[in-house]
Amino acid sequence: MTIQKRIAVLGAGQIGVIIAGMLAEQGHQVTLAEDGFDALSKVGDSQPDLIFCDILMPRLDGYQTCAIIKRNEKFAATPVVMLSSKDGVFDKARGRMVGSQDYLTKPFTKDQLLHAVQQYGGAGQGEA
Fold first, then answer.
1. What's the CATH fold of domain 6-120?
2. What are 37-68's pLDDT values in tens digits?
3. Which of 56, 69, 93, 120 is most enclosed, with most CB atoms within 10 A?
4. Residues 12, 52: Cα–Cα separation, whole Å
5. How far is CA 60 from CA 2, 27, 74, 86, 112, in A?
Protein backbone atom coordinates (compact mmCIF):
# COMPACT_ATOMS: atom_id res chain seq x y z
CA MET A 1 0.00 0.00 0.00
CA THR A 2 1.20 3.50 -0.87
CA ILE A 3 1.78 5.85 2.04
CA GLN A 4 -0.22 9.04 1.63
CA LYS A 5 1.90 12.05 0.61
CA ARG A 6 1.27 15.76 0.73
CA ILE A 7 1.84 16.93 -2.83
CA ALA A 8 1.75 20.45 -4.28
CA VAL A 9 0.94 20.93 -7.97
CA LEU A 10 2.04 24.40 -8.99
CA GLY A 11 0.77 26.29 -12.00
CA ALA A 12 -0.18 23.49 -14.39
CA GLY A 13 -3.62 24.96 -15.24
CA GLN A 14 -6.18 22.43 -16.43
CA ILE A 15 -3.49 19.74 -16.54
CA GLY A 16 -2.87 20.48 -12.86
CA VAL A 17 -6.49 19.64 -12.09
CA ILE A 18 -6.09 16.33 -13.95
CA ILE A 19 -2.81 15.61 -12.11
CA ALA A 20 -4.48 16.42 -8.79
CA GLY A 21 -7.31 14.00 -9.61
CA MET A 22 -4.87 11.20 -10.46
CA LEU A 23 -2.96 11.77 -7.23
CA ALA A 24 -6.09 12.05 -5.09
CA GLU A 25 -7.29 8.71 -6.54
CA GLN A 26 -4.13 7.21 -5.06
CA GLY A 27 -4.95 8.67 -1.63
CA HIS A 28 -2.56 11.63 -1.70
CA GLN A 29 -3.40 15.03 -0.24
CA VAL A 30 -3.04 17.55 -3.09
CA THR A 31 -2.68 21.33 -3.00
CA LEU A 32 -3.10 23.29 -6.25
CA ALA A 33 -1.66 26.73 -6.98
CA GLU A 34 -2.42 28.86 -10.03
CA ASP A 35 0.72 31.00 -10.29
CA GLY A 36 4.13 31.49 -8.71
CA PHE A 37 3.04 33.85 -5.94
CA ASP A 38 0.08 31.64 -5.04
CA ALA A 39 2.47 28.68 -5.07
CA LEU A 40 4.82 30.24 -2.52
CA SER A 41 1.96 30.85 -0.11
CA LYS A 42 0.42 27.40 -0.56
CA VAL A 43 3.74 25.57 -0.23
CA GLY A 44 4.32 27.38 3.05
CA ASP A 45 0.85 26.43 4.32
CA SER A 46 0.70 22.81 3.11
CA GLN A 47 4.35 21.81 3.73
CA PRO A 48 4.34 19.22 0.91
CA ASP A 49 6.46 16.08 0.71
CA LEU A 50 6.80 16.60 -3.05
CA ILE A 51 6.25 19.49 -5.45
CA PHE A 52 5.32 19.32 -9.14
CA CYS A 53 6.06 22.72 -10.67
CA ASP A 54 5.06 23.81 -14.19
CA ILE A 55 7.66 26.00 -15.88
CA LEU A 56 5.11 28.24 -17.59
CA MET A 57 3.26 30.15 -14.87
CA PRO A 58 2.03 33.72 -14.71
CA ARG A 59 3.78 36.31 -12.50
CA LEU A 60 6.69 34.04 -11.43
CA ASP A 61 7.74 31.27 -13.77
CA GLY A 62 8.50 27.75 -12.53
CA TYR A 63 12.26 28.31 -12.47
CA GLN A 64 11.91 31.42 -10.28
CA THR A 65 9.36 29.71 -8.04
CA CYS A 66 11.55 26.63 -7.58
CA ALA A 67 14.61 28.76 -6.79
CA ILE A 68 12.72 30.72 -4.11
CA ILE A 69 11.30 27.53 -2.56
CA LYS A 70 14.74 25.89 -2.49
CA ARG A 71 16.35 28.94 -0.83
CA ASN A 72 14.04 28.46 2.15
CA GLU A 73 15.85 26.06 4.48
CA LYS A 74 12.50 24.56 5.52
CA PHE A 75 11.95 23.34 1.93
CA ALA A 76 15.52 22.92 0.68
CA ALA A 77 15.23 19.12 0.93
CA THR A 78 11.71 18.93 -0.53
CA PRO A 79 11.92 17.34 -3.99
CA VAL A 80 10.71 19.41 -6.93
CA VAL A 81 9.80 17.86 -10.28
CA MET A 82 9.52 20.39 -13.11
CA LEU A 83 6.72 19.99 -15.68
CA SER A 84 7.11 21.29 -19.22
CA SER A 85 6.26 20.69 -22.85
CA LYS A 86 9.88 21.55 -23.66
CA ASP A 87 12.35 18.68 -23.45
CA GLY A 88 15.59 20.39 -24.43
CA VAL A 89 18.86 19.81 -22.62
CA PHE A 90 19.04 23.52 -21.71
CA ASP A 91 15.57 23.46 -20.12
CA LYS A 92 16.41 20.39 -18.05
CA ALA A 93 19.79 21.84 -17.01
CA ARG A 94 18.16 25.10 -15.97
CA GLY A 95 15.72 23.13 -13.82
CA ARG A 96 18.63 21.38 -12.09
CA MET A 97 20.38 24.71 -11.56
CA VAL A 98 17.43 26.04 -9.56
CA GLY A 99 17.20 22.89 -7.47
CA SER A 100 14.75 20.51 -9.13
CA GLN A 101 15.33 16.78 -8.80
CA ASP A 102 13.64 15.73 -12.03
CA TYR A 103 11.79 16.89 -15.11
CA LEU A 104 8.63 15.42 -16.67
CA THR A 105 7.93 16.35 -20.28
CA LYS A 106 4.27 16.88 -21.17
CA PRO A 107 2.41 14.89 -22.17
CA PHE A 108 3.40 12.29 -19.60
CA THR A 109 1.55 9.17 -18.56
CA LYS A 110 -0.14 8.41 -15.26
CA ASP A 111 2.54 5.74 -14.72
CA GLN A 112 5.32 8.31 -15.16
CA LEU A 113 3.61 10.64 -12.69
CA LEU A 114 3.10 7.91 -10.10
CA HIS A 115 6.68 6.72 -10.57
CA ALA A 116 7.90 10.23 -9.72
CA VAL A 117 5.72 10.20 -6.58
CA GLN A 118 7.15 6.83 -5.59
CA GLN A 119 10.72 7.91 -6.32
CA TYR A 120 10.67 11.34 -4.67
CA GLY A 121 7.61 11.41 -2.41
CA GLY A 122 9.43 10.44 0.79
CA ALA A 123 12.73 12.19 0.24
CA GLY A 124 11.99 15.64 1.64
CA GLN A 125 10.13 16.41 4.82
CA GLY A 126 10.53 12.97 6.31
CA GLU A 127 7.46 11.60 8.03
CA ALA A 128 4.06 12.04 6.45
1. Rossmann fold (3.40.50)
2. 999 999 999 999 999 999 999 889 999 999 99
3. 69
4. 9
5. 33, 30, 20, 18, 26
